[in-house]
Amino acid sequence: MGEKGNTRELILETASRLFQTQGYYGTGLNQIIAESKTPKGSLYYYFPNGKEELAIEAIKYTESLLLQKTKEMLFSTSDPIVAFQLHLNEIAADFDKKESVQGMPIGLIASETASTCEPIRKACVVSFEKWQAVYTEKLKESGFPAEEAADLSIVINSMIEGAIVLCLTKQSGKPLRIVSEKLSKLLSQEK
Q1: Which pLDDT tens digit goes with each residue over 137-151?
Q2: Cα 147 from Cα 123, distance rounded (Å)
Q3: Fewer CB near the terminus (10 Å): N or C of the chain?
Q4: This prediction's pTM
């Protein structure tokens, strides 16, 4: 990757991390520039429409970074309970590192901008639907009827996003581990 690609990637990595942990309104462009150690002109070169465009690209970046990894993990075992526990415990482990929480789903930016920024809201909807599609696919493969799998994917995604907010607040992965444990009861009753 050339220097230009590295600069764009640095801006996206930094913006994604900051939006995920500080939210859209809590993150300023000057902070993104300072933490990415990139020139201000580069931000506007790659994202000429400013912060909103950067946020949408950051959502897509986070999704691309994590979705394939999640899919591989979920389909690494045939047991859906074990698969989802692996997934949740891996996310939980990120909260125990303390140095930085990277690659978290997009709940914070979604809740913050849902009624104030239609383009970001739409990008979040697409991202949530992609996560839920992976969860649905895993559940259907595990024998859940299609409609039930789709409904459960919404429940699972909601539980994960809610637990992430609690993890951020508590600075601990414990809420996700509790969801992981309780999810096993839900999935064993539903099938």
Answers
A1: 999 999 999 999 999
A2: 24
A3: N
A4: 0.85
Give me the half-sphere count of Cα atoms (radius 13 Å) on the Cβ side of residue 111: 12
Q: How far is the C-alpha of 157 from the C-alpha of 51, rounded, in Å?
A: 26
- Cα→Cα distances 49→36, 56, 97, 122, 175, Å: 19, 11, 34, 17, 37
Q: Per 3-state DSSP, what percentage of the chain is helix, strand, and coil (rounded to 5)?
A: 80, 0, 20
Residue partners of 5: CB distance under 8 A and separation at least 6: none
Sequence-ordered alpha helix ranges (H) in 23-106: 29-36, 40-46, 51-74, 80-96
Note the pLDDT tens digit of each residue in 77-103: 999 999 999 999 988 988 877 555 554
Structure tokens at 189: 């009753």
